[in-house]
């Protein structure tokens, strides 16, 4: 180092460097207020976060940074009073940029005193935490969605059980009682019993179908692949659309939560085919390797324009959410007239860990 080279050691140099540091910091609005709350200095960060140039804001009262409702309740002055009393205060809340948009700020106000202890102003450091807030809100919405999904799944399972066990049993008992009425040995046989028996059979079948639609017993008894086979057969029978199911590789013991999620995903995809696709063929391919499970559902229907989301449509969104919860990836491919294809890749580790859906 030559003797002429600038150093940080002299007090004057340190002061200048420190000012430079404060002025150039971009991520924090750092500025001084006079004792009455007028802006006295301004840095790059303040300009970036709040949108004012120094020449526009120096001399103005700092309450312009607060939303109108805060100004009306006197919050800016309360903060200065509190900082003057306590030496320093910290606050998180909405602040307003020059263009009127709001940002979520973390604000620290520190009171400044002269050598005699007289209040001369305040140092204010503001950070824009909007991204962090949005992230926290997103996480919160995702937690809530997982919770609602689990609650819905439990509710469906319990209604399905009640329908099957309680109503199903009662209908079976009713059928037996009616059958004894038609029994020639007991009393004069009644010819009009048969249609009633047939009607009860139809009701029993309906109850079973509704219960299975809510939660197919095969999912709990025989596992995911058997449940998808059941779904496919049911779809074929109901809509008369040709549907091929290809399962590659061995079935692994999937966890209950993952099985339910994948089952619901296929169910939603098939519901979409029935509702929107006007397809004549559907193909489902499931394959598991040592690390991943892949699932493809494609149809040859009318397709759709992806990208523009109808705010009332939650099917594809829900599929994405289920896959995300399992740590997987889902991709939708479609164009008008070119069918619709859904590709899902799920890490096997998430599929095997247990827990309820
Ligand atoms: N298999 C498909 N074929 C054609 N269009 C589809 C298909 N699946 C989804 N879509 C389109 O994507 C949109 C969003 O689907 P979704 O989120 O499930 O909502 P919803 O079924 O309630 O409309 C549908 O409205 C439809 O336009
Ligand atoms: Mg749908």
Task: Report the top-level CATH class of the largest domain.
Answer: Alpha Beta
Beta content comes to 15-25%
What kind of sheet is the major sheet?
5 strands, mixed
Please count the helical segments: 12
* Total tally of structural domains: 3
Mean pLDDT: 90
CATH architectural grouping of the largest domain:
2-Layer Sandwich
Small molecules in complex: adenosine-5'-diphosphate, magnesium ion
Question: What is the number of E strands?
Answer: 9
> Which spans of ≥5 residues are poorly predicted at pLDDT below 50?
none
- Percent helix, as a range, is 40-55%
- The arrangement of helices and strands along the chain is HEHHHHEEEHHHHEHEEHEEH
| Radius of gyration, in angstroms, nearest whole number | 34 Å
Give the overall shape.
elongated
Strand order of the largest sheet: 5-6-7-9-8
Structural class: alpha+beta
What would you give as the CATH superfamily of the largest domain?
Histidine kinase-like ATPase, C-terminal domain
End-to-end Cα distance, whole Å, is 67 Å
CATH topology of the largest domain: Heat Shock Protein 90
Keywords: ATP-binding, Kinase, Nucleotide-binding, Phosphoprotein, Transferase, Two-component regulatory system
GO cellular component, one term: membrane
Catalytic activity: ATP + protein L-histidine = ADP + protein N-phospho-L-histidine
Enzyme class: transferase
């Amino acid at each position: 180092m030559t003797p002429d080279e600038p150093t940080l050691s002299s007090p004057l140099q340190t002061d200048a460097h420190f000012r430079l540091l404060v002025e150039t910091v971009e991520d924090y609005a750092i500025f001084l207020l006079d004792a009455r709350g007028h802006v006295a200095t301004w840095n790059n960060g303040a300009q970036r976060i709040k949108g004012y140039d120094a020449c526009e804001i120096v001399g103005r009262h700092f309450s312009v940074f607060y939303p109108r409702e805060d100004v009306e309740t006197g919050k800016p002055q309360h903060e200065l009073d509190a900082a003057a009393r306590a030496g320093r205060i910290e606050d998180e809340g909405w602040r307003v940029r020059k263009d009127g948009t709001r940002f979520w700020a973390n604000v620290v106000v520190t009171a400044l005193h002269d050598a005699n202890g007289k209040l001369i102003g305040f140092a204010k450091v503001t950070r824009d935490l909007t991204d962090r807030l949005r992230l926290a809100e997103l996480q919160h919405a995702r937690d809530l969605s997982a919770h609602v999904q689990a609650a819905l799944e439990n509710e469906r399972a319990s209604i399905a059980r009640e329908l099957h066990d309680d109503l199903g049993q009662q209908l079976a008992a009713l059928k037996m009682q009616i059958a004894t009425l038609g029994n020639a040995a007991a009393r004069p046989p009644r010819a009009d019993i048969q249609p009633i028996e047939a009607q009860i059979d139809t009701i029993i079948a309906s109850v079973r179908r509704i219960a299975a639609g809510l939660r197919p017993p095969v999912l709990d008894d025989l596992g995911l692949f058997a449940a998808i086979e059941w779904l496919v057969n049911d779809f074929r029978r109901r809509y008369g659309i040709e549907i091929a199911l290809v399962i590659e590789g061995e079935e692994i013991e999937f966890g209950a939560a993952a099985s339910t999620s994948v089952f619901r995903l296929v169910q939603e995809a098939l519901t979409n085919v029935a509702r929107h696709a006007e397809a004549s063929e559907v193909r489902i391919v499931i394959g598991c390797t040592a690390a991943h499970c892949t699932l493809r559902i494609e149809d040859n229907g009318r397709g759709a324009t992806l990208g523009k989301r109808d705010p009332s449509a939650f099917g594809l969104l829900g599929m994405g959410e289920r896959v995300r919860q399992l740590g997987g990836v889902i991709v939708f491919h479609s164009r008008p007239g070119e069918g619709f294809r859904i590709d899902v890749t799920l890490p096997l580790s998430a599929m095997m860990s247990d827990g309820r859906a």
